[in-house]
Amino acid sequence: MNRRPSSVEDQEEDPAIDELQNALENLSWVEKARVRLREDGDVLTGEAFIQPRDGGDLLDRMAEASKIVGSVDWRVHDISMVPVRSVD
């Protein structure tokens, strides 16, 4: 079933969402980030909305962010990286 990820034990929100968001916001060029994930069997899919501090070298920066996302949790697959002016 394609749904928002949660833990099996207590149905709380999966910590992968916060972990991914924090990893992205720790990049020096990221002002803010928001992550939206869905559970699809054993894997997580979704979107990461990234508000850069400036627009310089955006393609290389987005590639860096994509590598970070892939290294945070083995279950994360197929994350769309979306640069935005504001995440609010």
What does this structure look like?
This protein is α+β, with helices and mostly antiparallel strands and 88 residues long. It has a single domain (2-83), classed as Cation efflux protein, cytoplasmic domain (Alpha-Beta Plaits, 2-Layer Sandwich), CATH 3.30.70.1350. Helix content is 28%, strand content 35%. It contains 2 helices and 4 strands, in the order βαββαβ. It has a 4-stranded mixed sheet with strand order 1-2-3-4, covered by helices on one side. Helix 1 packs antiparallel against helix 2. It is globular, with a radius of gyration of 13 Å. 18% of the residues are buried. The model has no long low-confidence stretch (mean pLDDT 87).
Descriptive key words:
globular, 4-stranded mixed β-sheet, alpha+beta, single chain, 88 residues, 2 helices, Alpha-Beta Plaits
Q: How many E strands?
A: 4
Kindly provide the radius of gyration, computed on alpha-carbon positions and rounded to a whole number of angstroms.
13 Å
**What kind of oligomer do you see?**
single chain
Helix content range = 25-40%
Runs in which pLDDT lies below 50 for 5 or more consecutive residues are none
Number of helical stretches of at least 4 residues: 2
The CATH homologous superfamily is termed: Cation efflux protein, cytoplasmic domain
The run of helices and strands is: EHEEHE
Provide the CATH top-level class. Answer: Alpha Beta
* Straight-line N-to-C gap: 29 Å
CATH architecture: 2-Layer Sandwich
Beta strand %: 35-45%
Mind summarizing the main beta sheet?
4 strands, mixed
Side by side, the strands of the main sheet go 1-2-3-4
* Shape call: globular
Any idea of the CATH topology?
Alpha-Beta Plaits
Query: What is the arithmetic mean of pLDDT?
Result: 87
Coarse structural class: alpha+beta
Provide the number of structural domains. 1
